[in-house]
Amino acid sequence: MIVYGRNLSPFVRRVVMWLMLQQRAFEQRAVAMTEAADRETLRAVNPVMRVPTVVCDDGAVLTECAAICDWLDETAPAHRLVPASGAARRDCLSRIAIVSAATDKGVALFYEAARRPEAFRWADWMQHLTGQVTGGMGQLEALAPAEGFFGGDRPDGSDLAATCLMDFVPVTSPHLLEGAPYPALAALAGRVNALPGLGETRPR
Question: Residues with Cβ < 8 Å from 188, sequence gap 6 or more?
């Protein structure tokens, strides 16, 4: 299995961590969409040029983080990271949805601040995006367990997603964490990153 994308993308990193927790063999090709050669490499695999893109062992190509992770759970050789049914599944998917929304807006905020020329940046829009990111993190902070993981004794998919968000924000929008306003969420991410190999995937 081949994963295209860099771990700076919290969606790519989520897939990579998912694969690691499920003890799957994979190769990561860290293509960067800022590099013309990397864009062409990805275009040959996925014309939409979205990361993450996964090429399965049988040659099938998957894109979009949620679809990839759903397929990984469906074919999991070890254990699912989203419960199969019931309230546990509903609650896990709800947390993942909160994280994904906040992460989408965090990526948009990063692009607005770092990629758009300063003269064309829209301050009101950036403030709106900031409110969406911090709103999502605030929801997760209220839900975060004092010990262990959202998934109980071991992480579930929402633990991985939340960790990717909490490690993405300091790299791209560190001002959002001034004063450490999300201590429970930060502690949760710390516990996830302490698991073998997972902390090594953090974006630099």
Answer: 144, 145, 149, 150, 159, 162, 163, 166
Structure tokens at 107: 């990526």
Whether 184 has a pLDDT exceeding 80, the answer reads yes
- Strands of the chain, DSSP E: 2-4, 27-29, 53-55, 61-63
Smallest CA-to-CA distance from 151 within 162, 139, 166 is with 162
Q: How far apart are CA 110 and CA 99, in angstroms?
A: 16
pTM exceeding the 0.85 threshold for the entire prediction: yes
- Residue 106's Cβ-side half-sphere holds a number of Cα atoms within 13 Å equal to 30
Angle between helices 65-74 and 10-21 (to 10 degrees): 10
Q: What's the CA gap between 187 and 200, in Å, rounded?
A: 17
